Amino acid sequence: xxxxxxxxxxxxxxSSIPDITEAINNAIDNKFTYLICxxxxxxxxxxYIADNxxxxxxxxTRSDLDLTAECWQNYVVGAAHQFYDCDSEDETIRxxxxxxxxxxxxxxxxxxxxxxxxxxxxxxxxxxxxxxNNILLNKLxxxxxxxxxxxxxxxxxxxxxxxxxxxxxDAPWYWWKKLRTxxxxxxxxxxxxxxxxxxxxxxxxxxxxxxxxxxxxxxxxSLFLTNKSGFPVLSKAHQKFINQFLKLxxxxxxxxxxxxxxxxxxxxxxxxxxxxxxxxxxxxxxKTQFTKGYEDCLQNPLQPLMDNLESxxxxxxxxxxxxxxxxxxxxxxxLIDRVSEEDKKTKEIVIMVVGAGRGPLVKMAIQAAxxxxxxxxxxxxxxxxxxxxxxxxxxxxxxxxxxxxxxKDMRExxxxxxxxxxxxxxxxxxxxxxxxxxxxxxxxxxLKDDGISVPYRxxxxxAPVQSYKVYSEVRRCKEYEHPYEAPYxxxxxxxxxxxxxxxxFEFTHPNRAKKIDNNRYGKLExxxxxxxxxxxxAGYFDSHLYKDVDISITPSTHxxxxxxxxxxxxxxxxxxxxxxxxxxxxHFWRCVSSKQVHYEWCVSSPTNSVIxxxxxxxxxxxxx
Amino acid sequence: xxxxxxxxxxxxxxSSIPDITEAINNAIDNKFTYLICxxxxxxxxxxYIADNxxxxxxxxTRSDLDLTAECWQNYVVGAAHQFYDCDSEDETIRxxxxxxxxxxxxxxxxxxxxxxxxxxxxxxxxxxxxxxNNILLNKLxxxxxxxxxxxxxxxxxxxxxxxxxxxxxDAPWYWWKKLRTxxxxxxxxxxxxxxxxxxxxxxxxxxxxxxxxxxxxxxxxSLFLTNKSGFPVLSKAHQKFINQFLKLxxxxxxxxxxxxxxxxxxxxxxxxxxxxxxxxxxxxxxKTQFTKGYEDCLQNPLQPLMDNLESxxxxxxxxxxxxxxxxxxxxxxxLIDRVSEEDKKTKEIVIMVVGAGRGPLVKMAIQAAxxxxxxxxxxxxxxxxxxxxxxxxxxxxxxxxxxxxxxKDMRExxxxxxxxxxxxxxxxxxxxxxxxxxxxxxxxxxLKDDGISVPYRxxxxxAPVQSYKVYSEVRRCKEYEHPYEAPYxxxxxxxxxxxxxxxxFEFTHPNRAKKIDNNRYGKLExxxxxxxxxxxxAGYFDSHLYKDVDISITPSTHxxxxxxxxxxxxxxxxxxxxxxxxxxxxHFWRCVSSKQVHYEWCVSSPTNSVIxxxxxxxxxxxxx
Lengths: 624, 624
Hints:
The structure is a homodimer.
Chain A: E1 10-13, H1 20-29, E2 34-38, E3 47-49, E4 52-54, H2 69-75, E5 76-79, H3 91-111, E6 115-119, H4 126-137, E7 144-150, H5 158-163, H6 172-182, E8 189-194, H7 203-210, E9 214-220, E10 225-226, E11 232-233, H8 236-245, E12 251-255, H9 266-283, H10 286-291, H11 311-318, H12 323-338, E13 348-354, H13 360-372, E14 375-381, H14 385-397, E15 403-406, E16 419-424, H15 436-443, E17 447-454, E18 457-466, H16 468-476, E19 488-489, E20 496-497, E21 502-508, E22 520-527, E23 532-546, E24 549-552, E25 568-578, E26 583-592, E27 596-605, E28 621-622
Parallel strand pairs in A: 1-2, 1-12, 2-5, 5-6, 6-7, 7-8, 8-9, 9-12, 13-14, 13-16, 14-15, 16-17
Antiparallel strand pairs in A: 3-4, 10-11, 18-20, 18-21, 18-23, 19-25, 22-26, 23-24, 23-25, 26-27, 27-28
C-alpha cells in the first residue's frame, strides 16, 4: 500500500478571525487543508434602503489585499456567518437578508473563492433559492455553493429556531430537495452535512443522503470522545457513519472549540486521517484499482457491430480476474458433460468462439480442454481485422494446428462442420444491449442441433434510482438534443436505489422458436422504500454460462471482484417526486428493426412521464 | 351580417361502405363537408406472427386507386374501426392490436389523409401511446391523430366494456390527460368529444374539456328530437353545450342511422348550420371583429422603450371604443375637481400627455376641456419621431396654439412650467410590464406637488391556467433557448382557469416615497377548483384612471367591449398535475436593474417547479 500516500482533506471552521493570515497559518500548522470562515463581521449592522445597503465610512469587511489571490482561492472557504432570512414574512427582514446575502455573494465572486458555505434552516426558501439560482447561472462566477444542513433536527440551536417558522415536510432533506428542484439540479450546488450526536436511525435515510452531492461532512468538536490515552476519538456509530461516506470524494470540517487543548487542534485532523487510511487499506482490491476515477462518469455505450474495439479496450477487459475463470469453469463442465471419461481419448469436440477479440476465450477453452483432458478443435471467429492480426500471431507462437482463425462476421460465415459448443461474450451492461441476441441468433446456424451455447441465458434487471450527481451530469451533456433520452454506461457511486432491482427481459440460446422475435415489452412495479426523487433507472444483467456457472453485475448477486461491466443508467426527462410506499410503474420496450435496435421507456405511476427515445431518435444500436 | 357566409363544417360518419365514391357523393349531396369511415374491413381476420401480419392473397383494404389523392385528402377522415387493445394482459391480443393499429397508421400516411380518428376507452394505454407518439414524431407523416372519447361514461357500449379492465382515475378526461402527457403534449394530437345523452353536470368539467384541443364534436343521430314540423332538433341542454364550444374552431360529426328517413341526412347538417349561424350573429361585435384570428396566437410583448411603435399598431389601438371614452371621462372629472365653476373662465390648467403617440389622448383632453368648459394648456410629449410628425400635422390642421408638441423622452425633458394633470397610457397586459412605473417615476418631476396622475393606480392579477393549445405552442417556439421562460401576449381562448384570478402587484402615481423601489415580490395561493394540468399562469391588469373611472382586462371586471389588451401568459417548463382543492402556490418577482426589468416565477406547491427566467436570461424589458 506504499502508493497510498494521499491524506484526508480536512478543513478548520472558525467563527471569528482577528487576523486572517495568522488563522490560515495556524490551520496549516495543525495539518488542516484550508480554513472556513465568515467573510463579513456579523456584528456589523446593515440596514436596507431601496436596493442598497447603507454603510458608514466603514469598510464592509477586511481588505482583499490581506491575502494573495492564490491564497484566497486555495486556503479560504467563505461561510455565511449569520442566518439570512430571505423569506421572512417581515418585509424589512426579508429585504435586509436578500441584500446582505447578495453582497456576500459578490465578495465571494470578487475574491474568486472556490466554495461558499450557506446554512439552510427551513423550507421557506423561495427568495433564498432565487438568489442562489441567479448566482449559479451567472457565467462570470465560478464558485460552488455548499448548502449546510444538519443530519438531525436536534442539532438546530434554539436561537435559530426562533427566527424561522416551521412547516409540514419539515426535515432537512426536504429543504434541500426543494432548493435543488427550484435551482433545476444545478451542478454547482453541493451539500455539507453537519454530523449530529443523534444520527438518523433509518438506514434508508442515510442512503438517501448518500445519493446527494455531499462535498463536506462537518464534525463539531463536541462529538469527540476522549480515549484512554487522552486522544480525541469518535464513537463507533459516528465512525460507521463516516465510513459510509468515504467512498464519495468528501472533505471533513472540524468546527468548534478545542476540547483537548493540551494536544492542539491537529489531533482532530490526525484522527480523521487515521480513519481515512484505514478505509483506503480495506477497500483496495483489483476491482477498485481498475475502476478508480470512473465513478459517476457518463460513458456512451459501445456500438460493437458498427465500430471496431480498440486495443486498449480489449486490454482492460482481458484483465478481469473473475469473468474468464468463470468461462473456463463453464467450458470445462460442458466438455465433461459432452464427452464421457471413456470417450475422451477418441472423441473430438468442436468449439467455436464467436467474437473472439484478441483471444481470451480461446485461451480459456484451451485451458478447459487441458484441465479436463478432452480433445478439442477450435475456431476463433472475429470480424475486427485488427484483432485477427493478434489472433494469427497467437496461433503462430502459442497455439497449435487445432485452432483455426476465421476473419468473418459470425452472422455470415459458412463453416464446413458444426460446433458442439458455441462460446461468446457479447453482453453489455443490461445483457442484450450490445445485440448479443441478434448476433447469436445469426450464429446459431454454426451449432449442432444438440449443441451448447455458452452463455445459454442472460437477463436484464432494473432498479429505480435517485442520483442528483448523475442527473445533473446528464442535463449538462451537450452531445444530444435530448440527452435525457440516451442510456449511459456508468459506475454508479453517488446514488441510491429507491427499491430493489427487478427482472426485466430474458434471452436464451440457442433460440429454437419457429420465428425469432427479439422485440420485448416489460412493465415493472416497484414500491418506494422512502420519500425520494426518482431521477432514472439503473440497469444490470446476469448471465448463465453453463448450468449453475454464472456471472452477474446485479447488486444482489454481483460476482465478487468482477469489473468488466458498469451498470447502465436510463434517465428521466424530469425528476419525479415519490413518497414512501408509492408504486413506481415503469414500462420498457426493446424495439428491433432491420437496421437497428433501440429502447423506449416511460413511467406511468405515481405520475406519467413522457415516452423517452421515441423511434430511437436519440439512442439506437446499429445492426450493421 | 352579410359578410358572414361561412357555413358550419359538418362530417358524416359511417361504419361500413360498400363503395367509397358513392359514399362521398352521398355525403356531399347531403351538404356534409367530408366523410369519416373505417379504412380496414373489421371482419378481416388478422393474426400476429412475429412482427408481420399474415394475410392470405387478399388485399388488406380497398385500393388507393378508388379515389384521387386530392379526394382522399379533402373528403376522407380515417377511423380506427375496432377497438385495438394494445395494452391487453394477453400477449397475443396485445401484439395483434399493435400490429393492426400500426398497419392502419401506415395506410393513413400512404393515403396522405389529414386526420385519423382513434377511440380511447381506458387508461391502460402505454403501448397504445407509444405507437401514437412514434407516428406523431415521424417527420415523414403529416396527419393529426384525433382521439375520440365519450363525454359521459354512460356512453360506453357493453361490448367494449367487456374488453377492457377498469382502473382508478377512470373518467375519459384522465385517459386523455395520460395520453397527452406520455406524448409530451404533441400539437398533432386532437380530441373528438362524443356527445352523450347525459352531459357532465359540473360546469367545471365542461370548462376543462374546453381547454383541451377539441377538433370535433360527434353527435349521434339518436340524440336528436323531432320538432312539431317533423325536423330533427337537439334538446336545450345539448344546444347549450354545443354553443359553448362554437368559439373553438370545431367540426361537427353526425353519426348513426337516419332517424328521419323521410327527410334525408341533410336535415341534420342544416340544423347544425342553423345553430352555427345563430351563434355567429349573436357574437359579432366590434371587439370580436378586431380580435378575430388572434385567438391563442403567441405574441412577444412590446418593447416600448427600445423600439418605436409602427403606424399600424397605433391605428389598431386608437380604434378601441371604450378605452378613450374612459380617459375622457376621467380627465373631465379631474378638470371639474381642479377648477371650480366660478374659476372656470379665469383659471388655466396645464395638462401634459406623456407618451402621446399619434394624439388620441390629446384629443380626449381637448374634448374633456370642451365638455367641461375648462381652460387648458396642453403639452404632448413623445419620443417617437414618426409619431411627432403626426402630432405636428394635427397641430397645424386641427389643434390651436394652446397645444405644444415636445419631441423628447418624458424622463429627460426639462419644462418651464409644471403640470396639473399628467396623462399617460403606458400599460401592458399586466399593467407594469411596459415599464409604466419607471417612465412615470421619471416624468413626475413634470407634475405639481398637488398634481394628478391619470392613471393614479394599476394592479396586476394572476390566475392558474390549463391550456394544452397554448402550452404546446410554447413548446414549439424556437425563438428562445428556453421558450417556457418568456411571457407571451395572447388572446386566451382554448383554455380554462383552474381558480379565479388574484391580485399580485400594485403601482401608484405620483410616487412620493423617499426612495422609489419598483422591485416587487408576491406569493399567491390558489385553491384548485378541479383536477387539472397546470400549464402556466394568465396575467391581467386593472387601471384606475381618476377616482372610480377605471379600465380592466381582469376577467371578473373586464371593461365591456375594450379590445386594446390581450392577457399575458407565463408558462411553466413542465406541466404540473393538480388535484381538486390542492393549494397552488406561485411566487412572482419583478426585478429592476439599471438596464432592464424582468420577471421570475416559480411554483412551490403542490410540487416545486424550477425558477423561471433566472437573471432575465430569456425575457427582459429594456429601460433604454
